[in-house]
Write a structure and sequence with these properties.
The chain is an alpha+beta fold. The chain contains 14 helices and 6 strands. The strands form 2 sheets. Strands 4-3-5-6 form a 4-stranded mixed beta sheet, with no helix packed on it. Strands 1-2 form a two-stranded antiparallel sheet.
Length: 322
């Protein structure tokens, strides 16, 4: 008696035979990339992997953390589902009937999941080009991974009703776009609600959320020392990491910091000066003619600037992010 699933498998094209292994490999690569980017965002290490303009703009933008959750984390979960679904081989199921059912179910998971990922990636590429105006290799790679998975999932199986599949995918894409519009409706570089951005008036520009923490005497003394030696902090009003850096100083201390706004839509922007200085990521400190990218603890800034005063700083990254 012929094993129909086995005989059917031998009649598949090379693309159909190797689609699932290819999806597994690509999804695994995507999972590694998004896991890395999630770690980067959660640990404020953007400056360590983005030494030039592009990915730093994206990873510190409001789009990178909808509702405070790193966007790559959603990608990590999606890639994980795709890898698992593609890994389920027919031969691990005891009977041909169950094998056929498993293949059908996982095929639908792959094609629908792939459609959601491809639609989301296409929208994010649109945002990258039209809103952020940045070139992010990590984002482009993830978009290529997502679209390739979708193409492989769609072409890697013989669909009995291709018209029905196409109609389903159109519905899936529409629902996905509706959800995306809802998530990002109030998020754009001009009105970033991730950090409660407000606009003072039409002439002054946009400003980030107000600081909520008060300063201790040593933080104020450090801020005054930094300004006295000509130190500058460069940032953007929408940058959540810049806001964190400000909170480390507190309201009274940060009032003494020489802060340079780099976004042209911010308050008193000095965009050309930022470019001339070589600012590529936010926040960046210029201390003694040296640039230091990323968030720095106040003790680090004290060491970099030669500050010799008291160091009983009340705020640290540990309690600021909690």
């Amino acid at each position: 008696m012929t094993d129909r699933p086995t005989s059917a498998r031998t009649s598949l094209t090379a693309l159909q035979r190797y689609a699932r292994p290819a999806i597994t490999i690509i999804a695994s690569l995507g999972a590694i990339e998004t896991a890395f980017l999630t770690w980067v965002e959660l640990n404020d290490r953007v400056a360590d992997i983005c030494s030039s303009g592009g990915c730093d703009t994206v990873l510190t933008s409001p789009y990178a953390s909808p509702y405070g959750v790193p966007l790559p984390l959603f990608g990590l979960m999606a890639y994980g589902v795709m890898a698992i679904a593609a890994l389920i081989p027919r031969h691990i199921v005891a009977t041909p009937h169950r094998a056929s059912n498993a293949e059908t179910i996982t095929s639908w998971i792959l094609v629908i999941g792939g459609a959601i990922m491809a639609t989301t990636s296409s929208y994010l590429m649109y945002i990258l080009a039209t809103q952020l105006h940045a070139l992010c290799p990590y984002c482009i790679a993830s978009a290529l991974f997502s679209c390739t998975i979708f193409v492989l999932a769609l072409t890697g199986r013989r669909w009995d009703d291709l018209g029905g599949v196409s109609f389903t995918l159109i519905i899936v894409a529409g629902v996905t776009l509706t959800g995306i519009f809802g998530v990002f409706a109030d998020i754009n570089p001009a009105t970033a609600t991730t950090i409660a951005t407000t606009k003072q008036d039409s002439s002054s520009g946009y400003t980030g959320a107000p600081l909520t923490r008060h300063s201790d005497p040593d933080s104020i003394a450090l801020a005054q020392h930094l300004t006295a030696i000509g130190a500058q902090q460069f940032g953007a009003y929408w940058c959540p990491h810049c806001h964190t850096q400000k909170e480390l100083f507190g309201i009274e201390a940060f009032a003494n910091i020489n802060y340079i706004e780099c976004d042209p839509k911010g308050v008193n922007p000095q965009t050309e000066f930022c470019r001339a200085t070589g600012i590529h990521s936010y926040p960046t400190w210029k201390i003694n003619d040296q640039l230091h990218e990323g968030i720095h603890e106040l003790t680090e800034l004290a060491d970099l600037s030669g500050y010799t005063g008291g160091r009983s700083f009340k705020h640290t990254l540990a309690n600021t992010n909690s």
